[in-house]
Specification:
41% of the residues lie in helices and 18% in strands. It is α/β, with parallel strands linked by helices. Among the domains are: 218 residues, P-loop containing nucleotide triphosphate hydrolases (Rossmann fold); 84 residues, Arc Repressor Mutant, subunit A (Orthogonal Bundle); 51 residues, Beta Barrel (Ribosomal Protein L25, Chain P), CATH 2.40.240; 91 residues, Gyrase A, domain 2, CATH 3.30.1360. The termini are far apart.
Length: 757
């Protein structure tokens, strides 16, 4: 029996609340109860979070009944989003209250099991109270965990932790936040009385072995010894649920694929290279129509500016549904406004919330019937996570609609749905030893206690991103932190004492404060707080550039509310309610994501397949019908959308002579209206590769012609603006860069960027 390992009262509560356990729960519970580290991979809405927590709750419950449960923190939950942390706290409090009530009815006296959240939003009074009376379950974010590990009083709070749950681990592993949390987990293990059990959760992990290594760290060679053969990712969804054991990590993999109701929505007007006002108007009308047809709807966009814009125009179309029918949700809104939007959506008071990634990961926002995505989300995993917010309960079918605003977006959305149907996932690549993150953690660790060089180096090497860190590199970072940095005013920013005779490292005065105030991998942005008067409440933040360009009397939109600017001060914009006056929309810089490599390959593959289907005679009706039918079946396009995709690829083929793919890069040169020469490379590799390619190629052109040139890149190509005198054979552009020298060329190009000036 799956529930036989739990206390009878816990088992009764589970059966009364949920009935039978899901596949992932049946597989996960024995592994978790064994005490081994575990990585759980299962689709959204499959019950994997409860699979991780129920064993922890059961253990705490048994301790409470035996009167061995003190006010100590035993379970630490780490999530990448503040909204997810708040959501988990609420979702845990209800079952804990119900279990406590059942215990009381059974005549069992036990202390209350408490769950608290510690994030950047947590008020200071709550933080102080937490130190006086620690919760049994602490919910936090990577950045707050770093602070808790570094501040003197909060370190005592973490000594008793027995279990660490890292949720949405796929969102951490491929970036510097993941490297940061990996080192924090090693510091936590060095601090606790017993080694904490690590449990990782995610719906989208590829390759899953790499994520498992990231979770448990660089322990020993035995980690790679398989106790059961693992199924390759390509077959991960055609097999029965499996528990695969590494030593010391057990992988519970029930796949990521889930039946979904997906389609691409195309406006009435024909799409072009840019989105016209008519297309946007039609899009708003269609989304409003879908909102009326469903009880609750989530609309995802890629930028905060677009979230404000879409929510504003939807509200105009849904006035008859009430003043609270539409809400905006993004990271630049205050905590109170975000929480209010989440609560109103759950209660049904708000019919549609327009959000950025702030509501993307694992959050249970009630019974959401429909998810709309405006434009391409630029990543397969992002699309799966966002669509998974709909039908976020067991056996439900998520319903999602993707809205294309340009021809390129239409092609990308079609490729995205095809990738999801085929079970393709973005590949996770863990960054290798980011040295800026290492420097932060070394200062924080040394500020907390004195270390021997060997022990500190061993701790760093146990974190998976730093498994191959060389001792010479470690010593150089320690030397820099101990000696400081030479400036015009002399040496400064020395944070460590390095005793090279006794090989000891400890923090200097001020090291702890520097670590706490400067830690984390999320870049600082220059923002101004928006303060509503006369109450004096902060409603959100806007970009510095927007704030300094604003004048008193201007109307701005924030949180789907119009505000009149009364004045702009240092770091603060004072506003008052403009009572619905027509607003301008704020902007925030550096938001748009680049397309992932896997989705870029899918886009190129879709182009190639359409070319193949229409290659015999693009104008022949039989070829057109064959391609049309294939697109409708494979990519969830309607007839109009499929026809526009075919025409776009065929017309491009007619002009260029070939269809640009990842196997066929096309160089094109033409003169613009001003007489300047434009060099275009059609390279569907995604923004990251194309931007690097453009920088390196621009550097080579600048050196060759001794002239500063302009370059730009998109997900589908790059363009370099040349003068009339820049003459060269077009085919020679492919010989300007070579794989053996491109790294050095790119480094020289990047060093000229303003951030290195």
């Amino acid at each position: 029996m799956p529930l036989s390992g739990f206390h009878p009262l816990i088992a009764e509560w589970f059966q009364a609340s949920f009935g039978e356990p899901t596949d992932v729960q049946v597989q996960a519970w024995p592994a978790i109860q064994s005490g081994a580290d575990a990585l759980i991979a299962a689709p959204t809405g499959s019950g994997k979070t409860l699979a991780a927590f129920l064993s922890c709750i059961d253990q705490l419950f048994k301790q409470a009944l035996a009167r061995n449960l003190d006010d100590q923190t035993h379970v630490l939950y780490v999530s990448p989003l503040k909204a997810l942390s708040n959501d988990i706290q609420k979702n845990l409090q209800k079952p804990l209250a119900e279990i406590g009530m059942r215990a009381l009815q059974a005549g069992l006296m036990m202390p209350e099991l408490r769950v608290l959240v510690r994030t950047g939003d947590t008020p200071m009074t709550d933080r102080q109270q937490m130190l006086k009376r620690p919760p049994h379950v602490l919910v936090t974010t990577p950045e707050s965990l770093f602070i808790l590990l570094t501040a003197d009083k909060s370190r005592k709070l973490l000594r008793t932790v027995r279990t660490v749950i890292v949720d949405e681990i796929h969102a951490l592993a491929p970036n510097k936040r993941g490297s940061h949390v990996a080192l924090s987990l090693e510091r936590l293990e060095a601090l606790t009385f017993t080694k904490p059990q690590r449990i990782g959760l995610s719906a989208t992990q590829r390759p899953i072995e790499a994520v498992a290594r990231f979770l448990v760290g660089n322990r020993s060679a035995s980690f790679l010894k398989r106790e059961a053969s693992i199924i390759p990712d390509s077959q991960a969804d055609s097999h029965q649920p499996s528990a695969i054991s590494f030593s010391p990590c057990t992988i519970i993999n029930v796949g990521h694929r889930r039946r979904m109701d997906l389609a691409v929505e195309v406006p009435k007007d024909e799409l072009s290279a840019i989105a016209t006002n008519a297309i946007w108007s039609d899009l708003y009308d269609r989304v409003a129509e879908l909102v009326r047809e469903h009880r609750t709807t989530l609309v995802f966009v890629n930028t905060r500016r677009l979230a404000e814009r879409v929510s504003h125009y939807l509200e105009e179309r849904l006035l008859d549904l009430g003043s609270d029918a539409v809400a905006a949700h993004h990271g630049s809104l205050s905590r109170q406004i975000r929480l209010s939007a989440e609560e109103r959506l759950k209660s049904g008071k708000t019919r549609v919330v327009v959000a950025t990634a702030s509501l993307e990961l694992g959050i249970d926002v009630g019974t959401v019937d429909l998810v709309c995505q405006i434009g391409s989300p630029r990543a397969i995993v992002t699309c799966l996570q966002r669509i998974g917010r709909a039908g976020h309960w067991i056996k439900a079918i998520p319903k999602g609609r993707l809205f294309a605003t340009t021809r390129d977006e239409l092609l990308e959305c079609a490729a995205l749905i095809r990738a999801i149907k085929n079970g393709t996932l973005d590949r996770i690549e863990v960054p290798l030893a980011p040295l800026d993150i290492l420097a932060q953690q070394l200062v924080a660790a040394a500020a907390s206690q004195t270390w021997s060089e060997e022990d500190l180096f061993a701790l760093v090497r146990r974190a998976d991103p730093y498994r191959d860190l060389e001792r010479t590199t470690f010593d150089r970072i320690v030397r820099m932190l101990a000696e400081g940095i030479a400036t015009n005013r002399g040496r400064g920013l020395a944070y460590l004492y390095h005793d090279q005779i006794n090989h000891r490292i400890k923090g200097r005065r001020g090291a702890r404060l520097a670590a706490i105030t400067s830690g984390g991998a999320i870049p600082d942005t220059a923002t101004y707080a928006v303060v509503a008067e006369p109450e004096g409440t902060v409603v959100g933040t806007v970009d510095e550039d927007f704030a300094v360009e604003s004048l008193a009397g201007d109307i701005m939109l924030l949180g789907n509310t119009s505000w009149r600017i009364k004045g702009v001060e240092s770091g603060k914009v004072r506003v008052e309610d403009a009572h619905g006056a027509p607003p301008s929309i704020p902007f925030w810089l550096g938001e748009a994501p680049s397309r992932t490599a896997e989705l870029s390959a899918e886009v190129a593959g879709l182009r190639s397949e359409i070319e193949r289907l229409t290659s015999e005679d693009p104008s022949a009706e039989s070829c057109q019908l064959s391609a049309l039918s294939w697109l409708r079946q494979e990519c969830a396009l309607d007839a109009r959308g499929a026809q526009q995709v075919i025409e776009y690829v065929v017309s491009g083929n007619a002009v260029l002579g070939v269809v640009p793919t990842q196997d066929c890069v096309v160089a094109e040169r033409f003169f613009d209206e001003s007489g300047g020469m434009q060099l275009v490379l059609h390279t569907p590799f995604g923004g990251r590769i194309n931007k690097a390619w453009g920088l390196a190629l621009r550097k080579r052109f600048c050196v060759t012609f001794d002239f500063e040139l302009q370059a730009a890149a998109t997900d589908n190509g790059l363009v370099i603006s040349l003068g009339e005198k820049h003459s060269f054979p077009l085919e020679s552009v492919f010989s300007y860069l070579h794989s053996n020298s491109v790294r050095e060329t790119l480094i020289q190009a990047v060093l000229l960027a303003p951030m290195f000036a």
